Amino acid sequence: MTQETIFLKLGGSLITDKDKPYTPRLDKLKELALEIKAVLDSRPELTLILGHGSGSFGHTAAKKYGTRNGVETREQWYGFTEVRFQAAELTRYVMQTLLEAGVSAIPFSPSASMVSTNRKVTSHNVLAIRKALEAHLLPVVHGDVAFDEALGGTILSTEDVFAFLAEHFPPIRILLAGIEAGVWADFPARTKLVKQIQLSDYEKMKAGIGGSASTDVTGGMKAKVEEMFTLIQKNKGLTVQIFSSEEGGLLTRALNGENVGTLLRE
User: Fold this and answer.
1) Could you give the domains of the chain?
2) Could you read off the pLDDT tens digit of each residue along the chain, which spans 266 residues?
3) Is the whole model's pTM more than 0.85, yes or no?
4) Would you say the C-alpha torsion 128, 130, 132, 137 has a positive or negative sign?
Protein backbone atom coordinates (compact mmCIF):
# COMPACT_ATOMS: atom_id res chain seq x y z
CA MET A 1 0.00 0.00 0.00
CA THR A 2 1.12 3.56 -0.72
CA GLN A 3 2.03 5.55 2.37
CA GLU A 4 -0.22 8.57 2.74
CA THR A 5 0.50 11.47 5.09
CA ILE A 6 -2.41 13.61 6.25
CA PHE A 7 -2.47 16.59 8.59
CA LEU A 8 -5.79 16.93 10.40
CA LYS A 9 -6.82 19.97 12.41
CA LEU A 10 -9.74 19.90 14.81
CA GLY A 11 -10.75 23.55 14.89
CA GLY A 12 -11.27 25.45 18.12
CA SER A 13 -14.83 26.26 17.07
CA LEU A 14 -15.51 22.52 16.81
CA ILE A 15 -14.01 21.25 20.07
CA THR A 16 -14.88 24.20 22.33
CA ASP A 17 -17.78 26.55 22.78
CA LYS A 18 -16.06 29.61 21.34
CA ASP A 19 -18.62 31.96 22.91
CA LYS A 20 -18.13 30.56 26.44
CA PRO A 21 -14.58 31.01 27.74
CA TYR A 22 -12.71 27.83 28.74
CA THR A 23 -15.54 25.46 27.78
CA PRO A 24 -14.67 22.19 25.97
CA ARG A 25 -17.26 20.23 23.99
CA LEU A 26 -16.50 16.89 25.62
CA ASP A 27 -19.15 14.85 23.79
CA LYS A 28 -17.90 16.13 20.44
CA LEU A 29 -14.29 15.39 21.38
CA LYS A 30 -15.25 11.83 22.29
CA GLU A 31 -17.09 11.35 19.01
CA LEU A 32 -14.16 12.68 16.97
CA ALA A 33 -11.63 10.55 18.87
CA LEU A 34 -13.65 7.40 18.12
CA GLU A 35 -13.79 8.28 14.41
CA ILE A 36 -10.02 8.83 14.34
CA LYS A 37 -9.46 5.50 16.09
CA ALA A 38 -11.66 3.62 13.61
CA VAL A 39 -9.90 5.12 10.58
CA LEU A 40 -6.41 4.45 11.96
CA ASP A 41 -7.39 0.84 12.68
CA SER A 42 -8.78 0.32 9.18
CA ARG A 43 -5.93 2.08 7.32
CA PRO A 44 -2.51 0.99 8.62
CA GLU A 45 -0.84 2.70 5.65
CA LEU A 46 -2.02 6.12 6.86
CA THR A 47 0.42 8.51 8.55
CA LEU A 48 -1.56 11.07 10.52
CA ILE A 49 -0.44 14.20 12.38
CA LEU A 50 -3.21 15.75 14.44
CA GLY A 51 -3.51 19.39 15.39
CA HIS A 52 -6.15 21.31 17.27
CA GLY A 53 -7.09 24.95 17.67
CA SER A 54 -7.41 26.87 20.93
CA GLY A 55 -11.04 27.95 20.71
CA SER A 56 -12.43 29.53 23.85
CA PHE A 57 -9.28 28.61 25.80
CA GLY A 58 -6.25 30.28 24.22
CA HIS A 59 -8.06 32.93 22.17
CA THR A 60 -9.77 34.47 25.19
CA ALA A 61 -6.54 35.10 27.08
CA ALA A 62 -4.65 35.98 23.89
CA LYS A 63 -7.07 38.75 22.96
CA LYS A 64 -6.81 40.24 26.46
CA TYR A 65 -3.02 40.58 26.28
CA GLY A 66 -2.48 40.98 22.51
CA THR A 67 0.00 38.10 22.62
CA ARG A 68 -0.05 37.31 18.89
CA ASN A 69 1.36 40.76 18.09
CA GLY A 70 4.40 40.44 20.33
CA VAL A 71 5.49 40.24 23.97
CA GLU A 72 7.69 42.80 25.70
CA THR A 73 6.35 44.14 29.03
CA ARG A 74 6.08 42.25 32.30
CA GLU A 75 2.27 42.19 31.96
CA GLN A 76 2.53 40.84 28.42
CA TRP A 77 4.88 38.08 29.57
CA TYR A 78 2.36 37.21 32.27
CA GLY A 79 -0.25 36.98 29.51
CA PHE A 80 2.15 34.78 27.52
CA THR A 81 2.21 32.28 30.39
CA GLU A 82 -1.56 32.44 30.84
CA VAL A 83 -2.16 31.68 27.15
CA ARG A 84 0.26 28.76 27.46
CA PHE A 85 -1.61 27.44 30.49
CA GLN A 86 -4.98 27.62 28.77
CA ALA A 87 -3.66 25.97 25.59
CA ALA A 88 -2.29 23.13 27.72
CA GLU A 89 -5.64 22.76 29.51
CA LEU A 90 -7.45 22.17 26.22
CA THR A 91 -4.74 19.78 25.04
CA ARG A 92 -5.29 17.78 28.22
CA TYR A 93 -8.98 17.31 27.30
CA VAL A 94 -8.03 16.32 23.75
CA MET A 95 -5.45 13.83 24.94
CA GLN A 96 -7.80 12.34 27.51
CA THR A 97 -10.49 11.62 24.92
CA LEU A 98 -7.96 10.16 22.47
CA LEU A 99 -6.50 7.84 25.09
CA GLU A 100 -9.96 6.80 26.30
CA ALA A 101 -10.80 5.93 22.67
CA GLY A 102 -7.72 3.71 22.49
CA VAL A 103 -5.56 6.01 20.35
CA SER A 104 -1.85 5.96 21.23
CA ALA A 105 -1.34 9.71 21.05
CA ILE A 106 1.44 11.94 22.35
CA PRO A 107 1.46 15.77 22.45
CA PHE A 108 4.17 18.08 21.12
CA SER A 109 3.53 21.57 22.46
CA PRO A 110 5.07 24.35 20.32
CA SER A 111 5.89 26.47 23.39
CA ALA A 112 8.29 23.78 24.60
CA SER A 113 9.90 22.94 21.29
CA MET A 114 9.51 25.70 18.66
CA VAL A 115 11.15 29.08 18.12
CA SER A 116 9.88 31.43 15.42
CA THR A 117 10.84 34.67 13.68
CA ASN A 118 7.85 36.87 12.86
CA ARG A 119 5.63 33.83 13.49
CA LYS A 120 7.49 31.65 11.00
CA VAL A 121 8.91 28.61 12.78
CA THR A 122 12.69 28.54 12.43
CA SER A 123 13.70 25.73 14.79
CA HIS A 124 12.08 22.62 16.18
CA ASN A 125 13.15 19.17 17.27
CA VAL A 126 11.43 17.26 14.48
CA LEU A 127 13.37 14.10 15.37
CA ALA A 128 11.04 13.49 18.33
CA ILE A 129 7.97 13.60 16.05
CA ARG A 130 9.71 11.31 13.57
CA LYS A 131 10.40 8.83 16.37
CA ALA A 132 6.75 8.99 17.44
CA LEU A 133 5.59 8.18 13.91
CA GLU A 134 8.07 5.29 13.66
CA ALA A 135 6.56 3.91 16.88
CA HIS A 136 3.06 4.21 15.33
CA LEU A 137 2.04 6.91 17.80
CA LEU A 138 -0.20 9.83 16.86
CA PRO A 139 1.64 13.17 17.26
CA VAL A 140 -0.63 15.96 18.50
CA VAL A 141 0.29 19.62 18.00
CA HIS A 142 -1.79 22.70 18.68
CA GLY A 143 -2.04 26.47 18.65
CA ASP A 144 0.29 27.77 21.35
CA VAL A 145 2.64 30.53 22.42
CA ALA A 146 6.24 30.45 21.22
CA PHE A 147 9.38 32.46 21.75
CA ASP A 148 10.01 34.64 18.71
CA GLU A 149 13.34 36.16 17.64
CA ALA A 150 11.68 39.35 16.32
CA LEU A 151 8.60 39.72 18.54
CA GLY A 152 9.88 38.40 21.86
CA GLY A 153 6.93 36.05 22.09
CA THR A 154 3.91 35.35 19.91
CA ILE A 155 1.15 32.84 19.22
CA LEU A 156 1.55 30.18 16.55
CA SER A 157 -1.69 28.94 15.05
CA THR A 158 -2.04 25.26 14.21
CA GLU A 159 -1.71 26.32 10.56
CA ASP A 160 1.64 28.00 11.37
CA VAL A 161 2.82 24.73 12.92
CA PHE A 162 1.54 22.70 9.96
CA ALA A 163 3.41 25.01 7.56
CA PHE A 164 6.69 24.10 9.26
CA LEU A 165 5.94 20.40 9.64
CA ALA A 166 5.01 20.17 5.95
CA GLU A 167 8.66 20.81 5.11
CA HIS A 168 9.69 17.71 7.07
CA PHE A 169 6.67 15.39 6.70
CA PRO A 170 5.18 16.40 3.33
CA PRO A 171 1.43 15.75 3.44
CA ILE A 172 -0.68 14.79 0.45
CA ARG A 173 -3.76 16.27 2.16
CA ILE A 174 -4.52 18.74 4.92
CA LEU A 175 -7.96 18.52 6.53
CA LEU A 176 -9.35 21.47 8.50
CA ALA A 177 -12.41 20.33 10.45
CA GLY A 178 -14.61 23.00 12.04
CA ILE A 179 -18.26 23.96 12.36
CA GLU A 180 -18.57 25.76 9.01
CA ALA A 181 -19.64 23.53 6.13
CA GLY A 182 -16.76 24.94 4.10
CA VAL A 183 -15.86 28.23 2.48
CA TRP A 184 -18.81 30.50 1.83
CA ALA A 185 -18.75 32.88 -1.12
CA ASP A 186 -21.06 35.23 0.81
CA PHE A 187 -20.09 35.02 4.51
CA PRO A 188 -21.88 35.75 6.83
CA ALA A 189 -25.06 35.17 4.78
CA ARG A 190 -23.94 31.55 4.19
CA THR A 191 -26.10 30.82 1.15
CA LYS A 192 -23.37 29.98 -1.39
CA LEU A 193 -21.04 27.15 -0.40
CA VAL A 194 -18.03 26.76 -2.67
CA LYS A 195 -17.19 23.09 -3.34
CA GLN A 196 -13.79 23.72 -4.90
CA ILE A 197 -11.42 26.67 -5.23
CA GLN A 198 -8.43 26.65 -7.53
CA LEU A 199 -5.64 29.07 -6.82
CA SER A 200 -6.21 30.84 -10.14
CA ASP A 201 -9.85 31.55 -9.20
CA TYR A 202 -9.25 32.69 -5.63
CA GLU A 203 -8.54 36.35 -6.40
CA LYS A 204 -11.98 36.73 -7.99
CA MET A 205 -13.92 35.48 -4.99
CA LYS A 206 -11.90 36.36 -1.89
CA ALA A 207 -13.89 39.54 -1.13
CA GLY A 208 -16.86 37.40 -0.12
CA ILE A 209 -14.91 35.19 2.29
CA GLY A 210 -15.26 36.49 5.83
CA GLY A 211 -13.36 36.19 9.05
CA SER A 212 -14.70 34.44 12.13
CA ALA A 213 -18.02 34.71 13.93
CA SER A 214 -16.26 34.41 17.30
CA THR A 215 -13.03 35.66 18.84
CA ASP A 216 -10.12 34.35 16.73
CA VAL A 217 -6.83 36.17 17.15
CA THR A 218 -5.21 34.23 14.31
CA GLY A 219 -7.37 35.64 11.55
CA GLY A 220 -10.46 33.57 10.81
CA MET A 221 -11.45 31.88 7.55
CA LYS A 222 -9.85 34.24 5.03
CA ALA A 223 -6.47 33.98 6.75
CA LYS A 224 -6.74 30.18 6.82
CA VAL A 225 -7.58 29.96 3.11
CA GLU A 226 -4.65 32.20 2.17
CA GLU A 227 -2.25 30.30 4.44
CA MET A 228 -3.35 27.04 2.86
CA PHE A 229 -2.87 28.34 -0.69
CA THR A 230 0.66 29.37 0.28
CA LEU A 231 1.29 25.79 1.40
CA ILE A 232 -0.28 24.38 -1.76
CA GLN A 233 2.10 26.46 -3.86
CA LYS A 234 5.08 25.10 -1.91
CA ASN A 235 3.97 21.44 -1.88
CA LYS A 236 3.24 19.95 -5.28
CA GLY A 237 0.10 17.82 -5.36
CA LEU A 238 -1.15 19.01 -1.95
CA THR A 239 -4.88 19.55 -1.52
CA VAL A 240 -6.64 21.10 1.45
CA GLN A 241 -10.19 20.46 2.57
CA ILE A 242 -12.19 22.78 4.83
CA PHE A 243 -15.32 21.15 6.18
CA SER A 244 -17.69 20.69 9.11
CA SER A 245 -17.49 17.79 11.53
CA GLU A 246 -20.62 18.76 13.42
CA GLU A 247 -22.44 15.78 11.92
CA GLY A 248 -21.16 12.36 12.93
CA GLY A 249 -19.30 10.48 10.21
CA LEU A 250 -18.13 13.50 8.21
CA LEU A 251 -14.63 13.30 9.66
CA THR A 252 -14.39 9.63 8.69
CA ARG A 253 -15.51 10.40 5.15
CA ALA A 254 -12.97 13.23 4.83
CA LEU A 255 -10.13 11.07 6.16
CA ASN A 256 -11.06 8.41 3.63
CA GLY A 257 -10.76 10.87 0.73
CA GLU A 258 -14.27 12.19 0.16
CA ASN A 259 -14.76 15.93 -0.39
CA VAL A 260 -17.38 16.83 2.21
CA GLY A 261 -16.70 20.59 2.27
CA THR A 262 -14.55 22.94 0.20
CA LEU A 263 -11.50 21.60 -1.63
CA LEU A 264 -8.54 23.91 -2.23
CA ARG A 265 -6.15 22.93 -4.99
CA GLU A 266 -3.53 24.42 -7.28
Assistant:
1) 4-265 (3.40.1160.10)
2) 457 999 999 999 999 998 888 999 999 999 999 999 999 999 999 999 999 999 889 877 888 899 999 999 999 999 999 999 999 999 999 999 999 999 999 999 999 999 999 999 999 989 999 999 999 999 999 999 999 999 999 999 999 999 999 999 999 999 999 999 998 877 778 888 889 999 888 877 766 665 555 434 445 677 888 889 999 999 999 999 999 999 999 999 999 999 999 999 99
3) yes
4) positive
Whole-number Å distance between alpha carbons of 245 and 260: 9
Instruction: Provide the residue type at 38 as one letter.
Output: A
